[in-house]
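Protein in question kept underneath.
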Amino acid sequence: MTSDPVPLIRRPLFAAATAAAALAIVLTGCSSADEPTVTSTPTSEGTVATATPFPTGTGAPGETGTATPTASPTGTSTATSTATAGASETPTPGEGYTEPTAEDAVAVLDQYFTAIGTGDYETAYGLWRNEGEASGQTYDEFVAGFDKTASISWDIGEPGRIDAGAGQRYIEIPVTITARTTDGETQHFEGSYVLHHTANIPGATSEQLQWRIDSADMTQTN
């Protein structure tokens, strides 16, 4: 039996009952009016068999990684994440500040997938912009979306150029995902994530200086 179609792209995240909709919870997100349009070719791969969705990865395209979740849906995890390897230290406003790179943005996406794959939903939610608000969900709604995905594999492509302007930075990163639901269905998705950070301008906080997920644009292809 085939599950209901996954919601169209650029939809806010929401809790859902069907397997397809539950998978779409994290594949889609709120869109930003200032998103850049960049075309890239996926080159990074990773796989994970999970009781909760999404894989681990490493800090740059072309590398691979795996993870086994050990946490319950409470948002806590005993697993050790290596997804941030290669990412820069947390930036601090002022002198000596080094602006995050495209590779740092990829590392944030890897950290996001790793956190979900290990059941660390609190970390994953916090990697959305504005402390999770950009996901379009409350934290409880976010966590509730992860009960219908059995396993997932993914490709992260080469990041696009950093779009700079008016003290804001955006980058689009292509992603393809193959997921298996708890009902045994295989689903394929293609699209991209857009990440954002604020430049080193007066009033910017350390959190705002870091790459955070701004939106997701994913489409089911089967």
